[in-house]
Specification:
The chain is an alpha/beta fold and about 325 residues long. The protein folds into 2 domains: about 5-95 and about 295-315, 3-Layer(aba) Sandwich (Rossmann fold), CATH 3.40.50.720; about 100-285, 3-Layer(aba) Sandwich (Rossmann fold). About 35% of the residues lie in helices and about 15% in strands. The protein has helices at about 10-20, 30-35, 55-60, 80-85, 100-115, 115-125, 150-160, 175-180, 190-195, 215-220, 245-255, 295-315; strands at about 5, 25, 45-50, 70, 90-95, 145, 165-170, 185, 200, 235-240, 260-265, 285. Strands 8-7-6-9-10-11-12 form a 7-stranded parallel sheet. A 5-stranded parallel sheet has the order 2-1-3-4-5. Helix 7 (about 150-160) links the parallel strand 6 and strand 7 (about 165-170). The model has no long low-confidence stretch (mean pLDDT about 95). It binds D-malate. The site of D-malate (MLT) has 8 residues, from loops.
């Protein structure tokens, strides 16, 4: 029997699964101070989403008792992987569970941007009937640039192609065959992707390499018109990780009309500051990091992470280990 603490919530089915397998589950969130004072040393495993941050100091404070960190989701940027590996703590995640939900949110943001859905709604609530100025464009016939070409990007690409878009990607780690199989044009140079696409959607991890990869200079390269010459403007969507889009650069690009619309589900600092200037920009709309926030995804995430944490605790092969290659 292991003691497992769940700090950012988890589906009831997943909690029941852990308990049915004889584990003691504690649902509790901790302050930064409590985490630094070693409160996790009472547990064998912790399951987090993105709210709980596990930097080196917190990991070191567990004094060798914590054995497994489960990340209920994909991104592990809230966990210091090197520190976990040094401490012999396995980090496992649930990378497949939210794919479809993030694909659908990305498409929703793309459509909401070009058809002014949020902007129209804001106007309606103020009693405005702005039919003419809400004229949008279609996705069909436009070019979509996907930064990163993992499962989510491939899903977005398939829907976009079904809607008549040309799909391009920049992913320096992608075997060219994968892009070819998906009828997607792979660019070796990220600037070429921006030069070729009127719509850019971000689907990579946040790393030193991708920090502010979407910046003012690159946005200025975007063509603003379709291959048939239709002036459709330039559009940016990010449902991956905050910090990949440079928010100051984005604001400048929106102010200058370099970018016609921007939609972010993720921000460099979350929760986003309500005074953030982007939130006041007419051509911006956002959501509060809800890519994986569907009943279906959360149910799958919960079950997957519960199974992966139990497998790791029991020394069985885990489907999604993040740091097995680093463990000492
Ligand atoms: C993820 O990495 O799984 C998503 O961004 C969802 C989340 O962090 O809650």
């Amino acid at each position: 029997m292991a003691k497992i603490v769940v700090t950012d919530g988890m589906s009831k089915d997943a909690v029941r699964l852990l308990e049915k397998n004889g584990h003691e589950v504690t649902l509790q969130s901790f302050s930064k101070e409590e985490l630094l004072q070693g409160c996790l040393s009472d547990f064998d495993a912790i399951i987090v989403r993105s709210a709980t941050k596990l930097p080196k100091e917190v990991i070191e404070s567990t004094g060798g008792n914590l054995r497994v960190i489960g990340r209920a989701g994909v991104g592990v940027d809230n966990i210091d992987l090197a520190a976990a590996s040094d401490a012999g703590i396995a980090v496992v995640n649930a990378p497949l569970a939210s794919t479809q939900s993030v694909v659908e949110l990305t498409i929703a943001h793309l459509l909401a941007s070009i058809r002014h859905i949020s902007k129209s709604d804001r106007g309606l609530r103020l009693g405005k009937w702005e039919k003419k100025i809400m004229t949008g464009t279609e996705l069909s016939g436009k070019s979509l640039g996907l930064i990163g070409f993992g499962r989510i990007a491939q899903g977005v690409g398939m829907v976009a192609q079904a809607m008549g878009m040309d799909v391009h990607t920049y992913d320096p780690y992608l075997p060219p065959k994968v892009a070819r199989n998906q009828s997607t044009r792979l660019h070796k140079d990220v600037d070429d992707l921006f030069k070729s696409c009127t719509h850019i959607s971000v689907h990579c991890n946040l790393t030193d390499e991708t920090h502010h990869l979407v910046n003012y200079e690159r946005m200025k390269l975007m063509p603003g018109k379709s291959r048939l010459g239709l002036k459709c403007g330039n559009h940016i969507v990010n449902c991956a990780r905050g910090g990949i889009v440079d928010e100051d650069g984005l604001l400048q690009a929106l102010d200058e009309g370099v970018i016609s619309s921007a939609a972010l589900d993720v921000f460099e600092h979350e929760p986003v500051d309500p005074e953030h200037e982007l939130l006041n920009h007419a051509d911006f709309h956002g959501t509060p990091h809800i890519g994986a926030a569907t009943i279906e995804a959360q149910s799958r995430v919960g079950t997957d992470i519960a199974k992966n944490v139990m497998d790791s605790l029991n020394g069985r092969a885990v489907k999604a280990t993040v740091n097995s290659h680093l463990l000492k």
